Structures are given as C-alpha cells and as structure tokens.
Description:
The complex is a heterotrimer. By secondary structure, chain A is of the alpha/beta class. Chain A has 15 helices and 20 strands. In chain A, α3 (about 100-110) crosses α4 (about 115-135) and α4 runs parallel beside α5 (about 160-175). The radius of gyration of chain A is 22 Å and the shape is globular. By secondary structure, chain B is of the alpha/beta class. Chain B has a single domain (about 25-285), classed as Aldehyde Dehydrogenase, Chain A, domain 1. Chain B has a five-stranded parallel β-sheet, with helices on both faces. A three-stranded antiparallel β-sheet of chain B has the order 3-4-10. A two-stranded antiparallel sheet of chain B has the order 1-2. In chain B, α3 (about 85-95) runs antiparallel to α7. Chain B is globular and about 90 Å long. The chains are: A alpha/beta, B alpha/beta, C alpha/beta. At the A-C interface, α9 of A face α2, α3 and α12 of C.
Amino acid sequence: xxxxxxxxxxxxxxxxxxxxxxxxxxxxxxxxxxxxxxxxxxxxxxxxxxxxxxxxxxxxxxxxxxxxxxxxxxxxxxxxxxxxxxxxxxxxxxxxxxxxxxxxxxxxxxxxxxxxxxxxxxxxxxxxxxxxxxxxxxxxxxxxxxxxxxxxxxxxxxxxxxxxxxxxxxxxxxxxxxxxxxxxxxxxxxxxxxxxxxxxxxxxxxxxxxxxxxxxxxxxxxxxxxxxxxxxxxxxxxxxxxxxxxxxxxxxxxxxxxxxxxxxxxxxxxxxxxxxxxxxxxxxxxxxxxxxxxxxxxxxxxxxxxxxxxxxxxxxxxxxxxxxxxxxxxxxxxxxxxxxxxxxxxxxxxxxxxxxxxxxxxxxxxxxxxxxxxxxxxxxxxxxxxxxxxxxxxxxxxxxxxxxxxxxxxxxxxxxxxxxxxxxxxxxxxxxxxxxxxxxxxxxxxxxxxxxxxxxxxxxxxxxxxxxxxxxxxxxxxxxx
Amino acid sequence: xxxxxxxxxxxxxxxxxxxxxxxxxxxxxxxxxxxxxxxxxxxxxxxxxxxxxxxxxxxxxxxxxxxxxxxxxxxxxxxxxxxxxxxxxxxxxxxxxxxxxxxxxxxxxxxxxxxxxxxxxxxxxxxxxxxxxxxxxxxxxxxxxxxxxxxxxxxxxxxxxxxxxxxxxxxxxxxxxxxxxxxxxxxxxxxxxxxxxxxxxxxxxxxxxxxxxxxxxxxxxxxxxxxxxxxxxxxxxxxxxxxxxxxxxxxxxxxxxxxxxxxxxxxxxxxxxxxxxxxxxxxxxxx
Amino acid sequence: xxxxxxxxxxxxxxxxxxxxxxxxxxxxxxxxxxxxxxxxxxxxxxxxxxxxxxxxxxxxxxxxxxxxxxxxxxxxxxxxxxxxxxxxxxxxxxxxxxxxxxxxxxxxxxxxxxxxxxxxxxxxxxxxxxxxxxxxxxxxxxxxxxxxxxxxxxxxxxxxxxxxxxxxxxxxxxxxxxxxxxxxxxxxxxxxxxxxxxxxxxxxxxxxxxxxxxxxxxxxxxxxxxxxxxxxxxxxxxxxxxxxxxxxxxxxxxxxxxxxxxxxxxxxxxxxxxxxxxxxxxxxxxxxxxxxxxxxxxxxxxxxxxxxx
Lengths: 481, 287, 309
C-alpha cells in the first residue's frame, strides 16, 4: 500500500484581488497619467489575476515629489522613537494578515504556499520588527553619533521573493529616516499593492512609501530620476550593470544585489542525510528562483556516487504541483520567459555533453513548470556551470582536495554565497576564509535572518542588506561631522 | 438610587507567574500622597524572596533559551498591552505620586516607550556589544554578550512606574530573569504592571515583583548564592547599600550602585552591559 | 552505505560505528519540522488512522498490572471499537513477562503478544538473568521480545558487550521476533542513536525501538527519523529489512500521522505496514478511535464514546 496524500489546498477565500490597481502615490491609489496597464497572471494556471498600472514619466515625477515632500516635512524630522512605532505597527499588521499575504504571494508568484507561509511572510514581519528597533538606536550602529538619512530612495526589486524583497528594501530605508518609491517586478506586483494597504492601516504619513508598478522602462525612469538620492536594486547582473552605468557621474548612492552561481561543497565526512536535505533546499527551494541558490554542487570524489544516489532518491519524493496545496514542495516557474530561459540553458547542458537526470514527476498541463533536474559530469567549461539558470537545475562537479574545492568555487564572476558540508569545524572556517562570497553557510543553506547581513562579492553586487551593516546603505554618516 | 460601592482590588505579590499573598500573611498600608488610604500591599518576607529567586531561576532557563527575536516580540507585547491600559496606569501613578494628571500620563507614556526601546535591543545587543577579534594566529575568535542569570533589583522609590520599568526592562531585555522589589511607599503601579506581564506572553518567572520594605528583603537577596547580580538603584540608605554590596561579595555578584537619574532621558547601554557577561570563543582554521 | 560490515571484535565494531556519517542535529530537526507541515486530509487521513491502529503495540507496563487489567487490554486490542466492527485490531499487546500467558489465553493467535524482557526498563541485571527472563517469556507464549540494551556499556564505549548481549538474547528468543530498545532519551545525541541503531541491527535485531516509555524524552520524531535512515541504509548494505518501533509519548492521532509521514518520506511504502513499523502506546489508541469516529460521523467524538481498557 502506498500513502497517497489527498489534495490539501489552501483556501483562496482570504484574498480579495481587485480587477485593476492604480499606483500608490502620496498615500492613495491614483490612475497612471497615460492610462497604461498590463496583466498579471497566476503562473500555475495562466489565469489573469488582475490588471496593474504601468507608471510613466509623469507618474514617477509625482511619486518622487511626494516622497521628497514627505521626507522634508514629516519623516525626516520625525524622531526615531516615533518612526519605530510605525515600523512596529507594520510588522504587526503583516503578522495579522499573514495568511492573506501568503496566499496572494503564491497566487501571483507560483511558489508553494508552504514556503510563502513558513518562510517569506514570517521573514517579512521579522524584517520590519528588527529594523523598527533600529530606528531609535542609530547612534549605536557604528555610523557616528548622529547619522542622518540619505533622502529619497528608489528601490527596484525582483519577482522571486516579492514581498520579502520589498521588506528588505523598505524596512531599513524607513528605519533610517528615508522615504521610498518602490517598483515591484512586473510579474509580481500584487503583494506590494497589498502592502500599500498595510501602510494605510498603519496610518503611515502619505508619501513615505510609494509603490509604482511597471516593467523595465518604469524602473529605468525611476532610478534615473534626478530627484532620487539613493538607488537600491535587486535583480539580474545585466540590469545592475546598466543601472551602475546610468548613475555614473551623479551624486546618487547605489547598492546592488545581483546574480549568483553558488558552490555547495560536500566533503566526505559530511552529515550526509542533512547534507542531502541542504542540497535540495539549496537549489530546489523556490524552484531555484534564488540568487544565492546552491546551483553548483561540488562533491568530493570519494563520495560522489553515493551522494548522487542519495540525492536522486530524495528528489524522487519531492511533490511538484498546485502551489496552493499545502503539501507541494515545487511550485510553478514564475513566467513563460523564465521557463524559456531555463529550457535553453538545460538544452545547452545536454548539447555540451553533461548527463541530465530529471525527477520523475507529472507536470500540470497549464502553467509554467520544470521538473527538479540534476546534471552530472559537468565541468567548469560548461555553460550550466557558469551562467545563472535561476531554475530548479543543479550542476554537479567533483573535487579531490579542499584547495581544489576553493579554486573551483571561486572560479566564477559571481560571489554571492557558498555552502560547506563537513563535520570538521576547523575546515569550515578555513574554507570560509578563502571563499570569495558574501554569505557562507556551513552545514546548512539558504538561511535568512534580518539580523544577518546579506549581499555579494564581485559581480553579485555591493552593499549589504540586513544586520548592522545593512543600515549603511540608508545612512549618511558623514553628514554628522 | 444609592451610590454604587466600588469593588476594590487585593494587591498581591507576583512570583512565578502567579499572584500569591505573602507567605507571612503580612501586609502594610499604602497611602496616597495626601495621606488617604489606597490599599494594603503584601509585605514580602525572607521566604517570599527565596521563592522569587527559585521562580526566577526557572524563568531564566526558559527566557534565556528563547530567541532574541522572540524576546523582542514579547517585550513589545508588554508595551502593547500597557498602551491599552494607559488610563488605569495614569490613575495609579497619579494616586501614588500625587502629581498632576498630565505628569502621570507623561510618565506612563514614557514607560511604554521604554519597553519599546528595550524590545528593539534584544536582537541587536550581540551586534552592538559583540565582536570578531583579529587574533594573531590561525583562529577564528569572537566575543558575544550573554545574560548573567538572576538579577535582584530594588526599584526606585520615587518614580513608581517609569523608574521601575527603566530598571526591569534592561535586565530582561538582556535575557536575564528579575526579582524586583517595588517602591516601598508607591507599590501599586508596579502591581498593575504585573497584571500586564501576566497577560503578555512573558514566561512565568522571568519577572517577579515583590512589595514591602527593601531593607527587609534585599539582604536575603544580596547574600543568596543563586542570585548573579544585584541592582541597588532604589536603595536610599547609603549604609544599607554598602552592606548589601559587601554581602554580594560573598558570591561575587555584579552590583549596580544606587542612583537617582532623570528617568525621562534616553537611556545609555550601561544598564544592559551591567547584566551581561562576555563570552569569547576560539576555534582553529585548518583543513 | 557501502562500507564493509564489521566483525564482532571490539576494535572492528568501534571503527565501524565511529565511521558512520554524523548527524547534524539542527538539520534533522529542520527536516522533521518541514515534514510536520504535511497536511493529511480526507481519505488519506482515514487510511492513515486505520494503518496506525494496526501498528499499535497496546501496552501496559506498570507495577500494578494484574491479570484482570491485562485481559481488559487484550479485549481492547482485539476489538478496539465495539461499536464499529470495521475497526481493525492492533498489532500486538505488550506486557511484562509474567503476564504473557494471561494475554496469550485471551488473544490466541489473533494479535501478537510482546513481552518486555532483559530486566526492563533499566537492563541492570546479569546476562544470565536477562536470558532467563527472555526464555520464560517465550515459553509462556510471547512471539515478540522487547529487550533493552545496556546503555551504560554503550555510553562507556563497550560496543562489543552490547552487541554480544543482543546476540545472546536473539538466540534465546528462538522463533520470537526481537525488538531492541535503544532508550534514546539516555543516549542523548543523534550520533549515538545512529550508532546504537547499527549496533542492534548488526547483532540481529528484527526491530529497533526508541524507548522504554519510562525515560523522558521517549520517542521523538527526529530520533525516529535517524533510526529510519539507519534501517534504510542497513537494508541497502545487507538486504535485510529491519523494523522501527516508536514508543512512548505519542498520544494523538495528529502525532501518529506525522510519524507515518516521516516513514513515508524517509523509507517509503516498504515500511508502511505493521511488520515494519509500530507504535508503542496506550492512550494513543483511544485518540485514533475518536478520530476514526469523527471521520465516520462528521462530528467530534468525546472520551465517553471510546472504551477505557
């Protein structure tokens, strides 16, 4: 007999999606000046969820103006103690509306409800909670006795963790006394728009948070707007470079959190069962739509075969399907474009001679799906070992010694994260010392916490989000002198 | 219609999350600033102090094991629940201190904000007070603050609520458990606060509040071998303070000497530092 | 697991057991927590509840046990819910050795009779006493023996002593199945749980069992996870399939279903039957029955609508 779990779908009744959304500027929803809209779909079903406004140049002007006025008149002059209370309110409102936000995130993004419910939304609340506490303690943060805010921040975020990325951007900015204009990714605007409603419930002064929706052009208009003091971008390395170029010569401050091609390094003395879990979590969490995903598995040769067998066995138990089902492990790919990109890179892997294995699972007929996939026999020269796939695809390489593992791990233009699996503590620290990556996980992977700084080396970007270090992006320490 | 006779509250101790009377059966009369009778408060005995330390040790185990994030949320919850009782606290403070209504309200609001301030510290202490230490050798070396354990404190005699909160909040924000003796002459706001603590997810035993004469209970706490630190803020008699400090030497307790600061100012970190130990860890780096 | 299996010499056993991969405690807890979020509904839940009932070793292990108490327990084991004849019987009754005969008289061959033996629960007696305890229980009709390992010897590193004792008890069991109780609450670390699991299997255990129920903590999901991984790896290495019994502390249907999910997603179908997975429990059964009634009637049941044994 086999244990077949009956469907356990989370109810959609808790969310109330409007047929269309305006732009959230100066505390209210307004129509875009030129009336442009685009559709947002559920990637698991291709159902149209809503129509979202596309902000143009006039709208960005309005948003920047609102943010500037709020900064000058209300938020900038407000004491940290009072700002803190607004942020605590937001944290509590996120907790109170957690189920609604989780379902909405899953509908719009395609990620499993288990992840939006147990990872994304709790972390969103935690980020606001943590940064609320900083708002009235900035003199203790190591940026001088009286650090000042930077001003108006333009923030552009990706679609992989829509509300969480919003929290990573907005919470520190507000805590430090800045006002923001945030542009969510065009495929995942809905939770950002729900967040606008949370700002309303919190009685946040108008203009402190502005949400402008749109695609790449909207983002370009926003970051290039002369009224902006600070740009924070999370997304692809390609767009990050373009933003950096466009800001050259200006006085705008910039932080970038870009792509990655993390090595997850498994030694022969690793706690193997937990390591397999860590590998799975490292690359198949959120369908691999994770910039810090452990997309390159480096196996010590002495245990390579055994580890691959264990990994495949474990992948056979992953449950792919309806993201709203509470038992789903692997949800939908966020968009047709992303699916095409994954397909093409996987094809390159096959063409270049790596061995492909995909978990045996039925893919739903509608929506965008890709099965958990492992490539073995991969070398440093393969495209799938060098380029970010941003999908549930793992490239397996091998090594013989710790030095070789470090060399291979570092042999990439990226440097966002790395993983080390060994029971030997001194080796963990020796490896961590040599890995050129902003986050190194040892005997775990894909852990996030508002108290822990996150960000990359090299082409994975600069600046940190979270922790005491993350405040630096939104504080002007020199103004204090 | 005849005038309604009010139902008066019995003021008791707060030990281990429960509200016992003093085991001694004693109480003392608490009067308002103008001398009118307010209530009888429990007069804590040596054994009540002993019970409170036992409860605090148990509370410390649970409280110090909670994540810093969780502790922060709990302390913020205390502020939330206090906010809902602003009026009651203001009336208590006004009766206890005989101050103007506006001043009483200001004290209550400052006390609530103080909880919020300390709530934000729980998950930032390690970053503000800890360090990675660049030792000259192949070692990873770091230092972290850790709570010292059970802290016995005498709350200020004058500032019945803000003073009390300013003493207790840093003790527990740092992860310690507290046994605190409320203002002798103005204990009632402290007891109202315990009703908030009991309904704010603060684990039983984390904060224990005694009423009575600190001159009677504090010597037992100062010499108690299972108390790790002593906060003498509310001890007004310098000789008693010196005696207590000498008693504390028996088990090398950390001692904070008496003081009467302006409680309305933004606190420094000194109260937090005073109830934290620093732990340094060495670990080799090598293949 | 492709390591060469050890011989029974102390050095060989030690080398082998210390060569097993470590268990990362945080990771094991994380895995259990994730599986704990599985939502089992409707027909899957009904199926799981019946399976759980069939896996119960209905247990009474008290100093105040009497023949009367054991007869009542046996009646309950045979017909857990007299109001619903479709309710399956439990797997076994589990009693002290001196009450095996009483149990066997009631249950006949309809359910198994398990006896705790070897100076249960402490195991602090001579080998001769332990073997006598075992033989007497088997002679009285026990077809399953639940023995305890010598935790003192294990923690002192005397793996050979523990091994040889299990071999001797297995021999004394004759045809009876041997369940080896690791008492994981005393072993403390998951590394120890993994080593003790292998040691018991190498010595011939038919089942490895978490706990006596007399030590806190008794069965926990993370300990059970590590034991399931051990039986999985042992089967891969030797071809022999050893069962797992989670005993003590499992009181609700919700908990029992979580264990079944753990079994399902760690070792799969092959262990999802009473020959390979058991619950050692007493109060669990009534909660399973109440849930069963809830599934059948659509409303919540109460403690007065299931029988006390």
